[in-house]
Amino acid sequence: MLEGVCAAYGESQVLYDIHLHIESGEAVTLLGRNGVGKTTLLRTIVGLHPASRGKVCFDNEEISKLPAYERVRKGIGYVPQGRGIFPHLTVEENLRMGLAALGGRGKSARHSVPDHVYELFPALRQMRRRKGGVLSGGEQQQLAIGRALVTRPKLLILDEPTEGIQPSIVQQIEQAINDIRAELRIAVLLVEQYLDFAWAIADRFYVMRAGRVVDQGKTKGRDAETVAHLLKV
Amino acid sequence: MGESAVIAGQVFNGISVASILLLAALGLALSFGLMDVINMAHGEMLMVGGYLSYLTCKFVHGPFAFLFALVVAFVGACVLGALVEVSVVRSLYGRPLDTLLATWGVSLILQQGARSIFGAIGDEVTAPQWLNGSIALHHGFLSGVNLPYVRIFIILLAAVVLVGVAVFIARSRWGMLLRAVHQDREMAEALGVNTRMVDLVVFALGTGVAGLAGSALALIAPVTPTVGQSYIVYAFLVVIVGGLGSVLGITLAALLIGLFSAGAQIFTSVSLADVFLLLMVVAFIQFRPKGIIVRRSRAIEET
After folding, report:
1. Nearest chain A Cα to B181, which residue?
2. CA angle B5, B9, B13 (to 5 degrees)
3. In this predicted complex, what is the ipTM?
4. At residue B293, does pLDDT exceed 70?
5. From CA B94, how far away is CA A226, in angstroms rounded?
6. Which has fewest Cβ within 10 Å: A187, B29, B127, B133?
């Protein structure tokens, strides 16, 4: 479903011949310390950062040359680090922004936020009229994931969803992501520092170090501790 | 005519000048707030709107020809603005200084074009019959004040356009996209928004509103090839004082500047009033530096 990538940041190369592969419906986690290029890799896939060489393929189609908004319309949902909530838009408006991705996919679907988003995150329905900027970190994270689901993705990309969020909410988010996978059969690409969380969600993992993949495999039957040494500072 | 009547008359004049300034400044503020683009050809959109009204009124007759001329001016300035955006502004994206220079070039081309077609002497739009006349006050302490219908019409036009733009931004789907792109361009893109399309629509809307301003202006003064030049400076002052991305701020600033220059003209000549106005704006920037200057230099750093 997804193949790719290689990227450079300005003069310095950040990513070196990364080969990433995700099957449809599969959950894959990308692990690594700060600054190894995980976020750059995700941004390259989404199209917010140009790839210097190599290519990104999605659904058997090369998308490297497409602008970000067209890639998103093909079915890549993106939840960035820091969550990317529009602070002066209401919760409902934030969700409705996701409908922009449905441009050219039939008109009837374009006007309302699907109910299953509110069912997944009931708190969002109550906060519909509040500004996105006043929400807590956990609420914003739920909003960001909900908003990405409004775009009807085939692949959901999550960049450190647990960062700066209290443990009880982390549990809820873990549950929600597993529900999304079970019900909607959406593939997930998860970047995480929090190993237990990543292991609870992913089928497979990649570990990155200095712009290269240094370890990969299945999470099942593999003790999370065996990759922990690659992540320690 | 008493002293209070003179002041009331100038207040009224100030508000009607403010109305035109407001229409001229709205588009500038929108495109600068959203795209960090300073459109030096914005004043020429007034000029184009003025000439389009002149032409429409020349060929279309009847009592409501001028209303039709307003529509023509708006649509024409929108289309011209869209052409400028696609051909010049878009290809210089993220290079504010180059855009400044290139749009200045566009402005010179449009001015010279108008001079070649219409000549350097102004063309007048005759106000329709129903705008001839005025409300004259004969009683009370405001006795002697004269309120021409034309100026009342311009104030109403500005109010309607202002409310229209505010509702468009606050309620419509495109308005929501505009606000989202303004707050976080990258995230909007990552949700499937064609942000360049939003830029284009906003830019064209802004130039269209400037076209309306030119059309309104044509009612009270002859349209000349350089009419835009004389108004664009004030429009920039409005944007500086009003701040960016705030329709309310722009409205207040337009009123402030319109009233200030009309008020100063009671006591002194027009050119001295301009001097005082500029001094006031300079002083204002010292106390409220969150105006255009801070934004612009940051925009340059980011590129």
Report:
1. A86
2. 170
3. 0.89
4. no
5. 47
6. B133
